[in-house]
Amino acid sequence: MPQPAKAAPSADAGDPGAGSADWGEHSQWLWRGQSCHWRVLGDPGHPPLLLVHGFGAACGHWRRNAAALAAAGWRVYGIDLIGFGASSQPVLRLDNRLWARQLQAFLAEVVGGPAVLVGHSLGGLVALSCAVFFPAWVRAVVAAPLPDPTLLTAPQGRPLRRAPWRRRLKRWLVIALCRMLPLELLVPLLAHSPLLDLGIQSAYAGPVIGDQELHRLIARPARRPGAVRALRAMSIAMALRPHGATAPALLQRLRRPMLLVWGQRDRLVPVRMAVQVLSLRPGLPLEVLEHCGHCPHDEGPEHFNRALLAWLSRLPGADRAQGPGR
Hints:
Strand 4, helix 1 (66-71) and strand 5 (75-79) form a beta-alpha-beta unit. The chain contains twelve helices and nine strands. The chain has helices at residues 66-71, 96-111, 122-133, 164-180, 183-191, 195-201, 212-222, 227-239, 247-253, 272-280, 296-299, 301-312; strands at 8-9, 25-31, 34-41, 48-52, 75-79, 115-119, 138-143, 258-263, 286-289. Mean pLDDT is 86; it is low at 1-17 and 320-326. The protein has a single domain (20-312), classed as Rossmann fold (3-Layer(aba) Sandwich), CATH 3.40.50.1820. A nine-stranded mixed sheet has the order 1-2-3-5-4-6-7-8-9, sandwiched between helices. The chain is an alpha/beta fold.
């Protein structure tokens, strides 16, 4: 088995409690020929918790959560998903199945055991996918929130299998449309113009234009040479996922504890989507944070951290690390 990479102190390692995007210690981990950036903070003897960022972000987006979670007794990890942050931006089938495999391998090779997974937006879908596909490596899941367009059209039962010609036609149309999009022009334009700040602002309920750290966190990956090809590969792969990789199917198969967190003022994934999630999986606990938009962990970190830690404290064995078969 490959040995875990040695984490190097980050620039602010001497003050891990400062709410910086450069929190904790950081390192690169090689997985299937791809470089994966990750961070860690907290006592190595404490139970592990893995933070998974959302679309367009990186593990630095947990800047206002990592220190509080570590101080509460968790060994906090953060990882940049393939295609995002400082990780590789390859032309692969970038969807929640691949990212779930990335998380499982990270837990096995770097963390060394199962962990609680906390995901923001796309990261919540990835965390849910990992819990379903690799349940032995996941103790519990938090999705803050859980986005998936298929939740809007979720059938009551398993959908009828489409005829092969219809599946081929859909694949051809998706690939053709994604290749026709002028991403080579749109992505650099967005990444180097004030339009990026407007896009970031749409995810927040309160004003964030002028938050230079947040701007850099989103802009740097978008300005890398591989950003366009990774975005196109992800767009195709996510659109062509099988039913078993969509949120409705994953929710029905989940056998691990799960918490939902939603911002009351989320305009990108409105809180009414939580009602659809609960109709598919009744009984899931839901925390709705007032005055927060799509990024409740970054907008209302004190309320988010308090709600998360309260839920974690009720998990079986939350006070000790557990490994497979222990």
